[in-house]
């Protein structure tokens, strides 16, 4: 058991490493040679061009202006200067709402921390049950501040129960406000945007095969019959593919265009055919967001795929140790020697042998955890979702289950997840919360350390972008020939939703569960939310370039996982109190989960449709406005080629390059040319009219003498 | 424990009472005086007029043709003569599909019974474990035919596991075929019907209140904006109510009419407003089916109502014994003497005292069970559903939960439901199926008796219609003045879905659970299904008059409850086998529930939309056909006044009666007049063109000399 000093030592180590990362970042980012690693977003949106033009050779690589070294931490206030509206214009709604999760964490936990520290800690400390126990017992200083310090059957538990009620009400209130805001932001975002192709387009899956007719003819016939006033056409893209490839590869799928948002909204939300497994319509994802490989999966195979993937995820969550143990048993030194006998003299050295014996068994586990998000993504792809945004949300959910079972429960209840599953199956439903509840206060120190390592130092390392930095410079040295190559070498990355959302949700879970149990954990959570908010705000503004825009479609998941955390905390508190012989409190607490579930159901009905459907009122209003302002708009021409299979896009791009190469025999391309050619193809029609805020430009000129 | 002879005695008693009921029915039904009790459906659809005209006074009351007494059982073949198509035309799709549940039972259980008796009974009997035990032990003869007779760790259990697989596959196959057929029948029924007002009408709830505008104006404005090409109008009915009543009673609800089925289908299936709790649209129920009292319930209160009702149902299912015990403690003899002292001399008589002491405590329970369906219906009404058909489905679901816990589980596990709940909460999830599974074979004799009492004799009493018979004759004696009064005194009743469906589903559950455990129970189930099929077919043809037509909307519930029975049987078999030390079989059986659930999910996706939505293809096809065949149709006039609040209907009816009374001062109405006035008002436009099949009319003339 860790003492307060242990925590102090761990805190200093982690704070120091976080500062080391920040310092390294601050020094690296002002070197012109790293400019494309730390400010790629500004290159992409055209606010910044190559820094190489205006300096001598050394100045191109290293920052010679020593004044800027003295102000190396000034990125922090700068990261706060952009307003939310500017962020939405600059980086999209997804990023802006992603940042709101951190402010939500701050808003929820700031009052909770203050209340818990002011009220619960004195209540716990003054109980003093544990002071009578000897130091050698499994009691840490942290425990004296926790609920463990209150003697059984004490009436002081009413403080804890009251606080649980207060916190639940407060968290629900904040969640409601936030859901309301995000839903409004989403509707406002969708309404204020310029015309977007996906508003007029519906994706139709499982088009039945009519012999003697092409898919395109069938689609045309069906929609001309059933949506006579609104249908425009389906898309040459698939038609072209039919010509290029053999007939077997025709996909029974089409992107169908309508002449109005109203017509598309109607088609996307209604059932088309008698047989509900044919002519499945849904909103088309935006063109960047389409995952083309999954479009052709037939309906029947979808439910089988889902079954198989669910079973695999279940196995992965509960039995992942089995294959790893197997690999570990193979990857021992004897096995290595047998495979590579020439290594024997090296391995037999005592120092190296002991190092390898300590290192090899852990390697398999580390590799597994490293590739886990990729595995989850592959599983989601097998499930057959057709949009990248959905794929990321689904793998994020899978990863969350893994973290919940193996990080949260796995740290509290000792033994592998498989052993837990076994023991849970053989315990009564009322026993499980007791088993977990009673060990919760004892694990507070572990989770405090976890927060510091993963939440503090880990987040600080995010801003350093060590991997992209190394890869960029390697590419720059060996591969880059033209400015266009340099554009490609630049890897801005994006918010990694499948990994970031689950760990965020884990922090919410830890904060909510420990709020009444061990309040001293809360300040560590608060520091995480504040620090991560800074870092990600900076990254969103300067680095990340989102691959797609889903309009904050992930929010309902964030909301419902926080609700799930509330429910878990209530159950565990019930279990914990029942071991404290405060069983009479159960009737007092039983109302909480029921109320929380009712609140969740209400929110689901009230807000979720805003994330899943497009109201006709909205569609009609936009249609009418557009007809007034642009009476001569040719919507058919606008929609043509919007959804082009990537196979054609790469063709066109190559043709473009060919032409350019022919041209370039005589003149070298200017950077401005290449910059203009880099944004997403014009048919996507994203009219971001934002200019980089003046202080950014200003700062950039500062960095260049 | 009952021996085979006990079962035999019980069977003879029940068979005799069933025959007594049938005999009484056969004699009563050929008396002309009872004609309106046993053939009301034919009076309502106009195929039969009063039998009084063509005989002398005695002949009007009693059947004097003794020949008909000899052929008194000939209703049975007659009940089979009508084809399914004729039944659909005669009594509607609801009734026809209701009868199909019984044939489904026969189709499922006939092969299962044969296989189980031929394979499993010999396997069980030849094991002979129980023959070594002495007769005094708790072993009945039935048990020797059951799985209990197989010794622990026997390899013979592979027969049972194999049979469980075979039965599951067979039942799923039959369920799939039946769901497919019923879905097709529903679509065909909807497509082949004449024009119906509900196809053009959408009910809009939670119309927002705009100050300075009437609800009607707001609705007009909203739908003229958002559905400009399809909207016709909303309905004077509510408008009129506004004029009649004070402004407070205006309901924020409207029936909105469209000029095409397509327009209505679009409006019913899409989200209208930004705020998903306003402008809630859904298909209007048919006018007969509307439950007007619930229309005005606002959205927020709906979720609270649902929560309260769910909690009440939970309490009712698990704690219903508490209030009954309380009432019983009040309703003892002492209490009775205190309330009614004048009864003391009578009560003090020893014979009467012992009778009452045996009778009174049971009375509270009997009254409770008698009013339970009504209570479930009241609870469903509180939940706020707006169609009678939905209300009946919901109360049927509630009643099913009650039966499942208190009849099925309650009979297997001794003790009150509350005690069960308590013990289940303190057992591990794997222990519960064992506890139940191990007592299942022992309760087979009880359920055999239950099937005979409730399923054989109970069903036979249904055909006698004792209550409507008595009430009709009482009314006839004291109240009936005119032929119109006689029409009203006639109470045809209807299929009592809230009570019949749950008990049907209980029989499926019993059959499926006992199929591998105690196969000897199956023939009793088979007899029930066959016998009840006869009885209900007769009732549907001759007696019942459905109050509404939902197009077999209850089928998805029937399907999913049978699936639930399958899952229960699989779990219980796993539990049972694990107590037989055949724990190795668990991995063999674990695949079954997973496959069953997958099958259920597939069926849900494949067929359920046919019961919930109206495909646009279908709507457009009917619209187009109608425009071709009836180009001059004035749809607006057709829809006017279709949805009239009952308050106006009663006004109009009274006016009608007043006029008639004035007219009738001079001439007495002929029966044909009154028959014509009785069908549902003409604006419903149900064009049943069916004529009663000739043999029915023939039979009627036979009965009259």
In short:
Chains A, B: It holds the Pfam family PHM7_cyt. Chains A, B: It is a multi-pass membrane protein. Two copies of one chain form a homodimer. With 705 residues, chain A is mostly helical.
List the helices and strands and how they pair.
The structure is a homodimer of 705-residue chains.
Chain A: H1 4-29, H2 35-38, H3 40-44, H4 57-61, H5 67-70, H6 75-81, H7 84-91, H8 93-127, H9 141-144, H10 157-192, E1 201-205, H11 215-226, E2 231-233, H12 236-244, E3 254-258, H13 261-269, E4 280-283, H14 299-319, H15 321-330, H16 333-339, H17 344-347, H18 350-383, H19 388-412, H20 417-425, H21 431-439, H22 444-464, H23 466-478, H24 483-489, H25 497-517, H26 522-542, H27 555-579, H28 586-607, H29 609-612, H30 616-629, H31 635-639, H32 646-663, H33 671-677, H34 694-703
Antiparallel strand pairs in A: 1-3, 1-4, 2-3
Helix pairs in contact in A: 1-22, 6-26, 7-8, 8-10, 8-25, 8-26, 10-25, 10-27, 10-28, 13-30, 14-18, 14-19, 15-18, 18-19, 19-25, 21-27, 22-26, 25-27, 27-28
Description:
Two copies of one chain form a homodimer. Chain A is built from 34 helices and four strands. With 705 residues, chain A is mainly alpha-helical. A four-stranded antiparallel β-sheet of chain A has the order 2-3-1-4. The longest helix of chain A is centred in the first third of the chain and has 36 residues. The interface between A and B is large, with 49 and 49 residues. Chains A, B: Keywords: Calcium, Ion channel, Ion transport, Membrane, Transmembrane, Transmembrane helix, Transport. Chains A, B: Belongs to the CSC1 (TC 1.A.17) family. Chains A, B: It holds the Pfam family PHM7_cyt. Chains A, B: One of its GO terms (cellular component) is plasma membrane.
